[in-house]
Structures are given as structure tokens and as C-alpha cells.
Amino acid sequence: MRVNLTVNGVEQTVDDVWEGESLLYALRERLGLPGSKNACEQGECGSCTVYLDGVPVCACLVAAGQAEGREVRTVEGLAPGGGGLDPVQEAFVEAGAVQCGFCTPGLVVQSHDLIERVPDPSDAEIREALAGNLCRCTGYEKILDAVRLAARRKASTT
Amino acid sequence: MDFLRPLTWQDALAAKAARPGAVPIQGGTDVMVEINFGSAARRPEALLDLNPVRELAGHEELPDGTLRVGAGVPYVRLIAELGDRLPGLAQASRTVGSPQIRNRGTAGGNLGAASPAGDCHPPLLACGAVVEAESAARGTRLIPAADFYTGVKRNALEPDELIRAIRIAPASGPQYFAKIGTRNAMVIAVCSFAIALHPRERRVGTGIGSAAPTPLRATAAEEYLSTELDWEGRGPLPDAVARRFGEFVREAAAPIDDVRGTAGYRRHALAVLARRTLTWAWNDHRAARKEVS
Ligand SMILES: Cc1cc2nc3c(=O)[nH]c(=O)nc-3n(C[C@H](O)[C@H](O)[C@H](O)COP(=O)(O)OP(=O)(O)OC[C@H]3O[C@@H](n4cnc5c(N)ncnc54)[C@H](O)[C@@H]3O)c2cc1C
Ligand code: FES
Ligand code: FES
Questions:
Q1: I need a surface site. Which of A32, B29, B96, B215 has the fewest CB within 10 A?
Q2: Ligand 3 geometric centre to CA of A136 (Å)
Q3: Which helix (H) or strand (E) holds A110?
Q4: pLDDT value, residue A157
């Protein structure tokens, strides 16, 4: 089937989508956006987190057909363009919150949403917001540092 | 496989009548796991996407004050928009999965899946909620939650029916939900318990999760409390009453041993949860009087 959707601000038409296919598969395999990762395909790890109409969701649990006419924003769509990074991405790099990097795109999108909604999150709020994102490398401490850093940066620039 | 995308509730009912084998999908947090992992042989003949159906995404107050909550309202909105009037259901919603799951998952989907471990079920039972089902052929059918769960992952819906809404009275007294699991997020309940006090009717509602083939009420425990509690005087809760209540709840359960816990542990934990949630609720009830006077 055909699915029309907006991805990172660009209208896209995707053909030959299988009816049971996930949005994650369509993004990675049909739209050439491999940023969102496929780790568990059952909503447990958060590596596939994308915005759907402005709300972070596990792309592996959205049927591609459900994205018809809707807006998707992936990790590829966070940076302002021209090679720059979003403050959340910068903070992850600087804080050393990235090791193998597999969990990073999901954590970046989820953290981005948290800071948009809660500009000065408490530690409890950060932990709660990231409870659905698993990381097997970092032990999470540096990820928490990155989110705190990103929130501070964002507050000072706005 | 087909992908059906009705844009209105009437079209959705017509589609379900024409294709009873079509599987409704809302948040997809149960349906997509099945498709991602199920064998090709068990794939549904069609998916029926209910996301575009606006009627399902809203909630309203009926003339008698009952809340009519659309089947497609995600947990995140149940918590934010209805948490003040449906505290038990909101507490249970807060424990579901993770933020991403709560952004998509719905109480309607929880009912559709009818897992004995589903977190909505205990508060829906305790509050005496009613499931509003509808079909193109026979119109609306109101099914009390207590009659809705018919077996492990089975519910009372007919093949041509869809869930339109949940009807539930706003809380008239304290409500609590408690759940046992290994961590605070991403936990399928080992067992769970909900309590709702209805002080005006001098009645208590209960719901047990993950401790029998279906979610269920502890009716003997409810009756015991209705007569035993000091509704007017609002005196302190006697230890013996809390304990006996816990025993009644434990006796109502019919748990099994599985990977998440043993039957014995579940029984024990339920008695503790029952006692604890009753204590919280009763303390709130007592404090409420102090505020009024
Ligand atoms: C990582 C993860 C964690 C989870 N954690 C929890 C948890 O802590 N507690 C818990 O209770 N559940 C949990 N779940 C299960 C799931 O999120 C819930 O059951 C959720 O409420 C399902 O809602 P949904 O809208 O996503 O349902 P869907 O997957 O869209 O549908 C679920 C079922 O309901 C049917 N259905 C949907 N809408 C209707 C309708 N309007 N009429 C008739 N049938 C309908 C579908 O056909 C399907 O059978 C978890 C799932 C995942 C993937
Ligand atoms: S791949 Fe989607 S949550 Fe793990
Ligand atoms: S950096 Fe490797 S999983 Fe998180």
C-alpha cells in the first residue's frame, strides 16, 4: 500500500508498504533514515523513539499505515541543519553519554521532548522520562549528566 | 493482509461488520508486538486503524455526571485530563510501561487485550465502570466491567463489536491502586490491587489483577468492609479489620505459579496490598472530614 506522511518537515510518499509493517521499518528501510534503531521491536528499549505529531513514541509499535497524513520527526530532524547539532546532541557528546551509540538516538529524542516540556527537570523527572530507554554501556550516569547539561544550555540561550 | 482506515465511527462499525476478522489497532502496543513476533500463520487478515476516529479520542460528562471516556484516549491524557476525577485509573495508568508506551497505549486497548495483568482492570472493577460496546447491527451495548472479562485474554465483545468508550462515575471517595513488580517502570504486574471507597453509599469497590485467569472483584471483602467500617464516626481503622480484609482479598484470588512469581507469593502480596491501600484510603476519608468541619 501507499503511505503519505511528513518526515522531518518533508512530505514523503512511500510505496509497497506491507500492511503489518512498522513505522520503524518504513523509516529505516524505505526512507533511508537509519538513525532510529531497531533493538527489540517490542517497545521495551526505546531505541526507536521518534516524534509522531509531536509526541515521542516507539516507532516499532506504530503501524506504518497509522502514520498516514501525520508528522514524524526522527533524530535526523533535530539538528538545525548546516552540520550543527541540537543542544541535546551536543550535550550527549560532551558529557560522554555515548559509548556504542545504539541507544543514543532514542535517548536524544526522549530527552529533547523532556526539556521542551520541562525546561528545568529534577533528577526524578529525568529518570522517569528515560525509564523506557535502555542503555547497555554507559551505566546511565553520563546520560543524566548530559540531560542536565542540555537543560542548562537551553535555559541560558532562550 | 489489508489495512482499513475508517475516518468516522460509523465507518469503523461498518468496516468491523463487513470484516469481523479485522483486528482493531489503536496505540498498537499490544497489536504490533504480536505482528512483529507472531508467525505468518497467525497474522490477522486485516488491521482496522482506529486512530483517525475522532469520537474515540475525546471524553465528556453525561447528564447524570458519569464520565464517558473514549476508547482511544491514551494513558498520558487520562492522567493529565482525568486524574482529578478518576484517581484510581490515573494511578494505574501511571504504572503502565514507559512514557513512550503511555503516549500511545489506551484503556480501550487494555480492555481489548483483556490480559489478566492489564493495569486498567482493577480500578475499572473497583469503580464499577461500564464498557460501552457498539455494533452496526445492534447498536450500543453496556457491559459492566465485572462481566467483560471472560477468560485469559478473552472478553465479552462480539466479532462485529468495537469498544466506543468506558463509562465511569467520578470518584466519590478515596481511590488507590498498587502493583507488585521488579522495578518502577516497564513492569507487567506480578499482582495488583485497586480499592475505591464510596462513602455516600457506605460501600467499597475492589479489583484484583494478575492473580486469576481474569481480573476480578473480591466481593466478600467488599461486603465485609461495608458493614465493618465506621463510616459516620470515621474512627481509626482497627488493625484487625484491615487484616481480615486482606485475608478476604487473598481468598478471592486464584493465582498460578509462573515466571513472574509463585501463587503463594501472589496471595501473600495481595493481602499486604489490600491492607495497605485500605489504610491509605481510610486515612484520606478521615482527613476529608477534618477539612469539611
Ligand atoms: C513495553 C510495553 C510495556 C507494557 N507495559 C504494560 C503495563 O505496565 N501494564 C499494562 O496493563 N499493559 C502494558 N503493556 C500492554 C499495552 O501497552 C496495554 O495493554 C495497552 O493498554 C494497549 O493499548 P493500545 O491502544 O496500544 O492497544 P492496541 O495494541 O492497539 O490493541 C490492543 C487490543 O485491543 C483491541 N482493541 C483496540 N482498540 C479497540 C476498540 N476500540 N474496540 C475493540 N477492540 C479494540 C485490539 O484489537 C487488540 O486486541 C505494555 C506493552 C509494551 C509494549
Ligand atoms: S526497538 Fe522499539 S522499543 Fe526497542
Ligand atoms: S551507549 Fe551502548 S547501549 Fe547505550
A1: A32
A2: 5
A3: helix A104-117
A4: 81
* Cα–ligand 1 centroid distance for B32 (angstroms): 9
Distance between CA atoms of A77 and A84, rounded to whole angstroms?
11
pTM of the model: 0.97
**Domains of chain A, start order:** 3-77 (3.10.20.30), 80-157 (1.10.150.120)
The ligand minimizing its distance to the Cα of A134 is: 3
Residue B39 is predicted with a pLDDT of 84
Q: How many CB atoms lie within 10 A of CB B253?
A: 22
Query: Angle, to 10 degrees, between the axis of helix A87-95 and the axis of helix A104-117?
Result: 120
Closest ligand (CA of B166): 1
DSSP, res A70: -
Tell me the pLDDT tens digit for each residue of B119-162. Answer: 999 999 999 999 999 999 999 999 999 999 999 999 999 999 99
Residue A41: its chain B contacts at CB < 8 A?
A: 33, 36-37
Query: Which domains are delineated in chain B?
Result: 2-113+129-168 (3.30.465.10), 175-292 (3.30.390.50)
For B5, the closest of A42, A46, A68 (CB atoms) is A68
